Every structure is written in C-alpha cells, then in structure tokens.
Amino acid sequence: MELDLSFIRRQFPSLRDDYIYFDNAGGSQTLKRVMDKITEYYMTSDVQLGGAYSVSLKARERVNKGTAQIATTLNAEHTNEVIVGSSSTALIRLFSIVIGRTLNPGDEIIVTNCDHEANISAWKDLKKQGVVIKIWEFDTTSLQLELKDLKPLISDKTKLVAFCHVSNIFGTIHPVKKITEFIHSHGVQVFVDGVAYAPHRLVDVQDLNVDFYVYSIYKVFGPHLGVLYGKKKHLLKLPGINHNFIAADDIPYKFQPGGPNYELTYSLCGILDYYKAVAQHHGMLATETLRKQMQYAFNLFDKHEEKLTKVLLDYLSAKQNIRIIGDTGSDVKFRVSTVSFIVNNTKSSEIDAKIHPHKIGIKTGDFYAKGITKSLDLDRIGGVIRVSMAHYNTLKEVNRLISIFETIL
Predict the structure, then answer these.
(1) Tens-place pLDDT, residues 126-146
(2) Among 6, 403, 56, 38, which Cα is nearest to 218's?
(3) Residues 181 and 319 placed together within one structural domain of the fold
(4) Relative to the CA of 148, which of 28, 118, 218, 270 has its CA 20 to 30 Å away?
(5) Helix (H) or strand (E) segment spanning residue 182
(6) Rounded distance between C-alpha atoms, residue 15 and residue 392, angstroms
C-alpha cells in the first residue's frame, strides 16, 4: 500500500506553505496533535505536580501518560526506564557524569570517531578523573563500524562502549543487536545514540538488548525534548543527580533535576496518536496491538522514504563531479533517507547558498560529526552537503531539488 501523502501532510501545519524541508535530520516538522496537547495542558492543567487538588492530579496524570507513551514506542519493559530531558545532548552529558561516579582511575570507555560529538565529548571528559578513553574508528573504505576494529580495543578494564545506531552523515544503519551481543559477551555495557535512527525506524530496546539508548524527540515530529532509556537494573544502581533526599529507587526522577517539562512531556502523547492514526487510515484495525499499528505505520514510512532516497541517489551517482559520502544504495535494510555528498572543487557552503533562495532547506557542514569530516579530509571544503528526507516529503519535492541541482552543480 502506498503512503497517503495528502493525509500525512495535513497532520503537519508547517507543510501547508510552499517551503520544502530537507534538513529533517537536524529537526523534523511538528505534528498538530503535539501542538494541541501543549495548548490543552496550558489551558486546563497549568499547575505544579504533587498537589492533592484535582487540577494538580490531572497534571500529574498527563505527564505520566506522556512518559508512558514514549516507553511504549521504545518497547521498554518498564515505564520508569524512560527519562525525559531537555535534549539528547544534555541527557548524554548528565549520564556521563552519573556513570563517571561509578568508575575508577584506569577503567576504560570506548567511543567512536563517527558519532555526533554529544556521544564523544561527554565521555572524553572523564579522562580528567583517570578514565582511559579508546577510539573505535570507522573503516574509511566501507564507511562502517567494523567489529574487527573493536575487538582489539576491549579489555578486562572496559566498562562501556558508546556508539551510534546511524551515522548522521553516512546514513548507515549499524547492526546494533550484533554489536551489542559481542560487547555483552565481554561483560561490557553499551550506550547507543539513536538520534539519526528513531525518525525512520521503530526502536525496540528489548530486542536490541541495549543498556542505554538516547534520541531527540524534536527530530521525531515532537517538541524540543530528549529521551533516554536505561535498563531498570542499571538505573537503580546508578547514583542520582537530583536532590540528595530523592530515594535511590525513585526512577526516573532521581535523574531529572527540576523535573521534566510538563506541557512538552504531555504532548508526547500526540506522537503515538499519530502513528495509530496513520495505521488505521491505511486499513489497519484499531483492535490490533499498539506495537502492530506502530510497526505498520513505520513500514509505510520506510517504503516511501526508500523511493525518495533512490531517486536522489540515482541522480547524484550519475554526476561525474559528485562524490556520495556513504552507501550509494537506497535499501532500507542498510541506510536511512539521510544523504550526504560533496561537489568536486567546490566549498559545500557555496551549494547551500545557491539552494536556499529557492525556498528549500538543506544544510552543509560537519553536523558535529567532526571525526568523520576530519578522517575523510572534508574539513577543507566545509564538510558535506546533506539532504535529509522524512516520510512527509514528496517525490515532487525531490525532483524540484534535482532540477535546481541541474542548474548549479
């Protein structure tokens, strides 16, 4: 079944103008359902939690419901395994501090050189307390993280490996389940950055068996928030970073100084409502399980995004002066619809400057994945040109971009 783009685009108010959004990896457009939940919270439950009066109880119920919806989306075993925070960057930084308190001088953490800097710098800063940081470098030929390069880095002192589910430049999907099995076989925990993956695939933390998983809600059609999943057994053992009288078993609150943002957390309900609406609009019965409805919606998204990606990649591959930075195939098993490339003898920013007058939003640079641009010697041209598509983009929009590329490349 084809994705009904007319229905899809009606769910996003910003798509009613003539602007084309191709910087979705930086931040998606926001659902009207999410906006409505924020307004509803402000208008009918804009009070502090913790009171015995009815409006405060309603506010608490709504905040809890928002967190529960995200736990459902991630397929977390327990609702309190999900921590809502201001951003994925802030949550990774917070947990680097928390986990750092459990480490001793000489303990080791492995990070990659293809992650967003958020999942690198926070861990590297633990060197100040004597933690040893090792770098798992991506293969510059395959442009992937290879287990053969990780194996020599792991020792009996390794405590954590931090890596990304998808590179925000390459668009490559790393085999997280396989990597996690290998790391766990050495008694080591994993911390996965799923920011570039979650907008395109339905995450199942239980199937992946990851210890920690983080992503950005504002890149998944919602408000500017981040979400971090942690296995309950780990969260209970970790020291809190909230007030020191907060109980050790009070999760996720012991990791939320000041508490979560109330109205934005409630608005997360709108995202799950959207997935269900998509599934049911395309023929799935409302009596099916939530998981089946969500997966059905994402299958529709994947199929559509694969078509868009193929059209763009086929065009770029045929241009002699263009080098695609990442997999040149569009197969959804191996990549998401984030496409990066460079133009020979051209600063990437020059292309951006020629595109934006046409009311098309793309972006150029290193996207805080500085390890990639440095390793591939791309800094000298200002990084890559990135076109990141979402399921609400259309083939007409892709062809419009291609027609402009034809005049400037």
Answers:
(1) 999 999 999 999 999 999 999
(2) 38
(3) no
(4) 118
(5) helix 176-184
(6) 9
Q: Residue 269 half-sphere exposure, CB side, CA atoms within 13 Å?
A: 16
Distance CA 337, CA 199 (A): 10
Would you give the DSSP letter of residue 396?
H
Does residue 284 lie in a domain region?
no
Strands 226-230 and 82-85: antiparallel
The closest alpha carbon to 325, from 355, 360, 356, 369, belongs to: 369
Answer yes or no: do 51 and 197 share one domain.
yes
Pure H helices in 252-380: 262-267, 269-281, 290-317, 348-355, 370-375
Pair 183, 303 in one domain? no
CA neighbours within 13 Å on the CB side: how many for 126?
30
CA distance 114 to 137: 7
Q: Same domain for 165 and 52?
A: yes
Residue 118 lies in a domain: yes
Whole-angstrom Cα distance, residue 177 to residue 10?
36
Q: The tokens of 147 are what? A: 């287990």
Same domain? 243 vs 345: no
Asked whether residue 72 falls in the same domain as residue 201, the answer is yes
Structural domain total, the chain: 2
In degrees rounded to 5, what are phi and psi of residue 408? Answer: -120, -20
Could you say which DSSP state residue 393 is in? Answer: -
- At 385, which helix (H) or strand (E)? strand 384-388
DSSP annotation of 103 reads -
pLDDT in tens, 278-327: 999 999 999 999 999 999 999 999 999 999 999 999 999 999 999 999 99
If phi > 0 it is left, if psi is from -120 to 50 it is alpha, else beta; for residue 390 that is beta
Is the pTM here over 0.90, yes or no? Answer: yes
Tell whether 128 and 78 lie within a shared domain: yes
Residues 74 and 212 in one domain: yes
| Domain span including residue 73 | 34-271
Question: Residue 199: is the preceding peptide bond cis (ω within 30°)?
Answer: no
Burial of 322 (0-12, 13-18, 19+ CB in 10 A): middle
Q: Which of 221, 253, 271 is the last residue of a domain?
A: 271
The span from the CA of 208 to the CA of 146, in Å, is 18
